[in-house]
């Protein structure tokens, strides 16, 4: 706080940059993300993650086997929490949105611990506590263990993770064709339009399939 | 519907505020610990100073998020990674202010971030719940097989190949832990992910303290999961 940056104005900025505030910021972010998962489980909308990651949680909600979601997401959480202090930047995608938003709820649900996910205030509180712990761990690791794990490991992992996202589009088109001719045609057209517009084709494929299959359902 | 709106406003304001403040801290990394993503930092810098650039960038990803939320109820990570930070920055920069005094200030970013977050999350969540039931059933029935193929075959292969391409030690760790994870958890990906992290660290720094800690955590995790999923019982132990 004492070494006020020349470019920075106001006391709030200096205070909000301290190490002490960091766990609080993580706590508030986690409260929101965990409550987002509550929204998804209760209202079917609002999880802060990519379609394929949320589908993993869905697999557990429908089939009762949360191992894939829990394993995948907590792997990311551990990796990112170890990496965050090393580079000075905590990746909120892997650590908070996937780890806290999907992995921890999956573990809780697998253990039959449904209260924190089904109850909104409890979800906020649970997320906040988890975030606070993560934030404190990161600041501690930053102070105690400057030589952490290799950053190139997370690089490899992220590369694979991003490649995975690209596969979803074609997979949805294949699945839409299997579902029916109208949905298949819709998916093809939607994906082509989204590709032309430089958007993720997964979104176009699923929207196209929904629209065309929905129209056919209405008139036939 | 009312409860979705109220909850969305709360979630959006909390998440947006914290994430935008964390994003402002990114401009002070590595001196201070921040949170966000390197790509977000790059993108914020790329349109620095121009509110229109920030708005249109965020709007592009808002469009993606809208498609995803209508189809599956998932908001995509981009809502917090890209849409909120860019809207928050754009709002602060209106009127030709300097980025150093606005976008780099966690306090100001927190205020506009909370505002943008509340609006964006509420908009997306209500948009999705306005979709008729029959349409979301179609989406669900198309998405389920696609994501199951993704999880059971595509993802393990992609991660496995990434591990094999990252050097001998990483390949071996990834293969062994991936195979064990498939056996114990029913999915190889978590094992391969951990194998990549351990392998890459060993390749660069040798078997140092943090690798040993990580291997211990992994072993305990595998044994615990194996126990609870009845793996040992299957072996007759």
Gyration radius over CA of chain B: 22 Å
The largest sheet of chain B, given as strand count, sense and whether it forms a barrel, is: none
Distance, first to last CA of chain A: 68 Å
Instruction: Sum up the overall morphology of chain A in one term.
Output: globular
Radius of gyration of chain A: 21 Å
Individual helix count of chain B: 10
Poorly predicted ranges of chain A = 1-8
Shape of chain B: globular
Q: Overall mean pLDDT score of chain A?
A: 84
**Which series of helices and strands of chain A comes N to C?**
HHHHEHHHHHH
Fraction of residues in helix of chain A: over 70%
* Most residues in contact, chain pair and counts: A-B, 108 and 113 residues
Low-confidence runs of at least 5 consecutive residues of chain B:
none
Element-by-element helix/strand order of chain B: HEHHHHHHHHH
Which class of secondary structure composition applies to the elements of chain B? mainly alpha
Q: How many DSSP E strands of chain B? A: 1
Strand content of chain B: under 5%
Helix count, DSSP H or I runs of 4 or more residues of chain A: 10
- Report the oligomer: heterodimer
Structural class of chain A comes to mainly alpha
Q: Helix coverage percent of residues of chain B?
A: over 70%
Note down, in words, how this protein is organized.
Chain B: The chain crosses the membrane at residues 52-75, 111-131, 143-164, 176-199, 211-232. Chain B: InterPro entries: DUF4311. Chain B: Pfam families: DUF4311. Chain B: This is DUF4311 domain-containing protein. By secondary structure, chain A is mainly α. Chain A has two domains: 11-149, no CATH class; 168-219, no CATH class. Chain A is built from ten helices and one strand, in the order ααααβαααααα. Chain A has helices at residues 11-16, 21-43, 51-63, 67-87, 93-110, 115-118, 120-144, 151-179, 181-196, 201-219; one strand at residues 89-91. Mean pLDDT of chain A is 84; it is low at 1-8. Chain B has two domains: 2-129; 148-235, no CATH class. Chain B contains ten helices and one strand, in the order αβααααααααα. In chain B, helix 3 packs parallel to helix 5 and helix 7 (168-185) packs antiparallel against helix 8 (189-205). The longest helix of chain B has 33 residues, at 133-165. Chain B is globular and about 70 Å long. Chains A and B meet through helix 1, helix 2, helix 3, helix 4 and strand 1 of A and helix 1, strand 1, helix 3, helix 4 and helix 5 of B.
């Amino acid at each position: 706080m004492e070494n006020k940056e020349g470019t920075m104005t106001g006391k709030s900025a200096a205070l909000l940059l301290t190490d002490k505030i960091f766990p609080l910021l993580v706590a508030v972010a986690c409260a929101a993300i965990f409550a987002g998962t509550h929204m998804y489980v209760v209202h079917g909308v609002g999880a802060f993650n990519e379609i394929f990651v949320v589908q993993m949680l869905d697999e557990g909600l429908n089939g009762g086997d949360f191992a894939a979601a829990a394993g995948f997401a907590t792997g990311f959480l551990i990796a990112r929490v170890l990496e965050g202090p090393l580079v000075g930047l905590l990746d909120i995608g892997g650590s908070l949105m996937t780890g806290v938003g999907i992995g921890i709820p999956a573990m809780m649900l697998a253990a039959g611990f449904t209260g924190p996910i089904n109850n909104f205030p409890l979800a906020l509180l649970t997320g906040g506590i988890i975030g606070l712990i993560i934030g404190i761990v990161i600041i501690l690791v930053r102070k105690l263990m400057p030589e952490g794990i290799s950053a190139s490991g997370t690089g490899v992992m992220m590369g694979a993770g991003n490649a995975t996202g690209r596969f979803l589009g074609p997979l949805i088109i294949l699945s839409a064709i299997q579902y029916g001719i109208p949905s298949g045609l819709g998916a093809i057209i939607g994906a082509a339009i989204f590709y032309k517009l430089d958007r993720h084709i997964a979104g176009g494929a699923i929207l196209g399939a929904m629209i065309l299959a929905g129209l056919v359902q209405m008139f036939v | 519907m009312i409860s979705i709106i109220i909850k969305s406003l709360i979630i959006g304001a909390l998440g947006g505020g914290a994430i935008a403040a964390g994003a402002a801290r990114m401009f002070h990394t590595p001196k201070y610990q921040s949170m966000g993503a390197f790509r977000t930092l790059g993108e914020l810098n790329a349109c620095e100073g121009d509110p229109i650039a920030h708005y249109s960038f965020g709007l592009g990803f808002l469009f993606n998020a809208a498609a995803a939320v209508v189809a599956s109820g998932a908001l995509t990570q981009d809502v917090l990674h890209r849409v909120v930070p860019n809207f928050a920055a754009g709002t602060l920069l209106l009127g030709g202010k300097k980025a150093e005094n606005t976008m780099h200030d966690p306090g100001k970013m927190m205020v506009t971030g909370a505002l943008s977050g509340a609006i964006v999350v509420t908009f997306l969540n209500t948009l999705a719940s306005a979709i008729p039931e029959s349409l979301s059933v179609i989406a669900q029935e198309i998405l389920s097989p696609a994501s199951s193929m993704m999880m059971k075959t595509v993802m393990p292969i992609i991660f496995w190949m990434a591990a094999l391409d990252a050097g001998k030690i990483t390949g071996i760790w990834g293969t062994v832990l991936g195979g064990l994870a498939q056996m114990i958890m029913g999915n190889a990906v978590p094992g391969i992910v951990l194998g990549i992290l351990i392998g890459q660290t060993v390749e660069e720094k040798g078997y140092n303290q943090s690798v040993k800690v990580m291997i211990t955590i992994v072993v305990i995790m595998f044994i615990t999961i194996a126990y609870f999923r009845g793996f040992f019982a299957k072996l007759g132990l």
